[in-house]
Amino acid sequence: MRNVIFAINITLDGCCDHTKQVADEETHEYFTQLLREVDQIVFGRKTYQLMVPFWPEVARTQSMTKASNEFARTFDSIHKIVFSRSLDSVEDRNTRIVRTGPRDEILKLKQQEGKNILVGGVDILHNLSSLVWWMNIVLSLGQSLQAMGDGCWKA
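Request: output the structure for the sequence above.
Response:
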């Protein structure tokens, strides 16, 4: 049975907004290695639209750093599923849209032969609470931290 791996970039102050972070060479190298261990990536619509068409374009043009270009090539080569009820079509040749909830589809994928399955995006996580999966969180320093008293941190 395949493993499901949830991976996300998150700052120490709890920010997991990809538009507010800059990944360095080491982060791209880490995620490239993680991608080499999977043959399926699963996204919700929002995260998918952050990743595609940006990374396939970098894979085509090789316009960034060595680590970013390698990440882009690896990312572009992997099959992807995007869960969306509103997305009409996808640009990426390796992507298919699934219009149902992610839990049942991922359970089916787990039963198939293959490498691990990578899940990305915060909105998709709550649908997977009953599945057995591994979590990778890459932490980076963001703004200063302030304890809120309710177990949460706020910048």
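The chain has six helices and eight strands.
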